[in-house]
Specification:
The chain has helices at 11-14, 20-26, 77-89, 120-134, 151-163, 189-206, 225-234, 279-285, and strands at residues 40-46, 57-62, 66-71, 102-104, 110-115, 141-145, 171-177, 209-215, 237-243, 248-255, 264-268, 274-277. By secondary structure, the protein is α/β, with parallel strands linked by helices. The chain has one domain: 3-Layer(aba) Sandwich (Rossmann fold). A hairpin with a 4-residue loop joins β9 (237-243) and β10. 39% of the residues are buried.
Length: 289
């Protein structure tokens, strides 16, 4: 078992006391207050319509919000994650994106990539893609492997990362692959609601963007279990990666407060690096899609 000290975030949580009167006052929305739109964390492409002569980037994730990457098993979700992470950092990663710009707005904020599924070898190979694609080892990128821990321990690690760690005040984007390992049963509505509420708390307090990765139900595009239903409702953006044989199709199935990014396809090169391919473009030219 992982030996972590009990978390003592504040007196109310420690004593399980909630002062409704005090909290109610905090919840009143000031309609005179000018609240800025949440800044982007990551974007994919640009709107094809200009506003005031400006073509704005299309949102993948914004700070203080939750997004999701979903797909069937072996659909190349993790390769898509590597493509996003490397381009959010920059360097030479744009060599892998063709004419679709994937851009990060994180400056020196931490990008933390959590893997709870893969073995040490596979998790390490996945983490190495980012510096390979960027051309150097990023100073603000941290890859973590949590496979060996149980569900409760992973939740404690996540709580510590967002609420107590030295990274908490400079978190930009956290990717969790996969969120299903933070519940004992993905069809348990109570557990699913609890982890969703935790993510809502973390993103609200730290203003970090969080992207969760989750499987789809077999043979459908429905997010897996009660976890997918409950968490999906709180996501500002849900993307789906579909295995089409030699390539995968990436599409935005829902987005809040903006336009969806355009569908595109990815392949894996001879170095086992993901890149945006022209497969969908060829199908469009031949009027197949």
């Amino acid at each position: 078992m992982l030996n972590l000290k009990p978390l003592t975030l504040d007196t109310e949580e420690q004593n399980n006391v909630f002062n409704a009167k005090d909290h109610f006052a905090k919840t009143i929305i000031d309609v005179n207050k000018d609240v800025k739109r949440p800044p982007l964390a990551v974007s994919i492409g640009y709107d094809d319509k200009s506003y005031g002569g400006v073509y704005y980037p299309l949102k993948f994730a914004s700070k203080g919000n939750i997004s999701m990457i979903a797909g069937q098993e072996k659909s190349r979700k993790t390769f898509f994650k590597s493509l996003l992470e490397s381009n959010a950092i920059g360097g030479t990663a744009n060599n892998y994106t063709s004419d679709i710009e994937i851009k990060g707005y994180l400056e020196d904020n931490w990008i933390i990539s959590i893997d709870s599924e893969q073995s040490e070898y596979d998790a390490t190979q996945t983490a190495k893609r980012v510096p390979f694609m960027c051309g150097s080892i990023p100073n603000n990128y941290l890859a973590l492997q949590w496979r060996e821990y149980n569900t409760q321990e992973r939740k404690q690690l996540l709580e510590w990362l967002f609420m107590e760690s030295e990274y908490r005040n400079n978190l930009g984007w956290c990717i969790i692959d996969g969120i299903v390992d933070f519940v004992s049963d993905f069809n348990d509505a109570i557990e699913s609601k609890e982890i969703t509420e935790k993510l809502m708390k973390y993103t609200t307090l730290t203003k970090a963007a969080v992207t969760c990765m989750l499987h789809l139900n077999p043979g459908s595009e429905k997010l897996r279990g009660h976890l997918g239903t409950i968490l999906g409702q709180k996501c500002e953006m849900v993307s789906v990666v579909q295995n089409e044989g030699e390539y995968s199709k990436v599409k935005c199935t829902r987005v809040r407060g903006g336009k969806p990014f355009k569908d595109f396809s990815i392949r894996i090169d001879n170095d086992w690096m993901p890149y945006i391919s022209d497969d969908l473009h060829k199908l469009e030219q031949n009027n197949i899609i």
